[in-house]
Design goal:
By secondary structure, the chain is an alpha/beta fold. It contains 15 helices and 5 strands.
Length: 305
């Protein structure tokens, strides 16, 4: 009979990162490794890609910590006389707001690349991650793994596939997020806020930085960008080269074009006027005939008026 899988029970102050899973087993068994560290000595991870927001979930976390304290330790590494947070940024922020002066922590001696990989893995599977956060964090891990590989540690698989496995996405999706790092910050904010789809963001990200900036400046002033327009801008950039003036002309020409009106009449409504044996062509003929008559009558009224 196989050994039963251990059920992972998350503490009440679990904040969406994977500290408890990472610390499960050996680390948590060695209770003496958990230290109480003054919060004033904690510093955020350099270029930490995940935002710490004072939202409703933060208020719930603060309430939990106020009631029960911090049950799950954060993970840190020594940094001179300070400690750098690897995982537990939200809990640390909540602890500060709750008035705590110390926080339980597991101290790990890790180099920069090891710390980066652990930091990303501890946060990447949160329920709510913005596209920009995922893109930045995956890029950080990709760079760290590339450096680890260059030191002689053979990962045995393509780095994108390794990263995708831990993030719960495919290697192809990893590449899409990595490409998103080339997107203009203004457009990246629009992707985060769902004002434009990620597919459009990726399309824009493939364009030159200065072209992206010029397009964004027009969009910020009210211009509308569409996939068709992006395709046209790319074609012009290849054939003639784009500058800010040419982009403005293309966007203004598109805005000046009258939009086609599309009218759809449901079959249920048409059935009120036409017998079932009438074909589509016969119905269209009658409709156009009546419209012609209506037009002539209105033109006659205008002339007499």
């Amino acid at each position: 009979m196989g050994k039963a899988k251990k059920e992972i029970v998350l503490n009440k102050d679990y904040d969406g990162s994977f500290d408890e899973i990472l610390l499960d087993g050996v680390e948590t068994a060695k209770k003496n490794e958990i230290q109480q560290i003054p919060i004033i000595k904690l510093m955020p991870f350099k270029d930490h890609p995940f935002k710490v927001l004072d939202d409703d979930k933060m208020e719930e976390l603060i309430e939990s910590i106020t009631d029960s304290g911090i049950l799950s330790p954060v993970v840190v590494r020594p940094k001179g006389e300070m400690y750098e947070l690897i995982s537990g940024h939200r809990r640390t922020h909540a602890a500060r707001r709750a008035g705590l002066t110390e926080i339980p922590a597991v101290v790990r001696n890790l180099n920069d690349d090891e710390a980066t990989v652990l930091m990303v893995d501890a946060n990447i599977q949160r329920e709510e991650i913005l596209p920009s956060e995922r893109a930045h964090s995956l890029k950080m891990k990709m760079d760290a793994l590339s450096r680890i590989r260059s030191t002689g540690n053979n990962l045995g698989k393509h780095a994108r596939e390794i990263i995708g496995e831990s993030a719960g996405i495919s290697g192809r999706q990893v590449q899409r997020y990595l490409s998103l790092n080339s997107l203009n910050q203004g457009f990246l904010d629009m992707v985060d806020k769902k004002r434009i789809q990620m597919a459009m963001g990726l399309d824009l990200a493939s364009m030159r930085k200065e072209v992206q900036q010029w397009i964004y400046e027009y969009v910020a002033m009210g211009a509308v960008i569409t996939p068709t327009l992006i395709t046209k801008l790319k074609e012009v950039d290849v054939s003639e080269g784009l500058d800010k003036e040419v982009i403005g002309i293309i966007l203004n020409e598109s805005a000046a074009k009258p939009k086609l009106r599309k009218i759809t009449i449901s079959e249920r409504k048409l059935n009120r006027y036409f017998p079932s044996e009438y074909t589509v062509s016969e119905m269209e003929g009658i409709i156009y005939s009546l419209l012609d008559k209506w037009k002539r009558e209105n033109e006659g009224i205008a002339e007499n008026g």
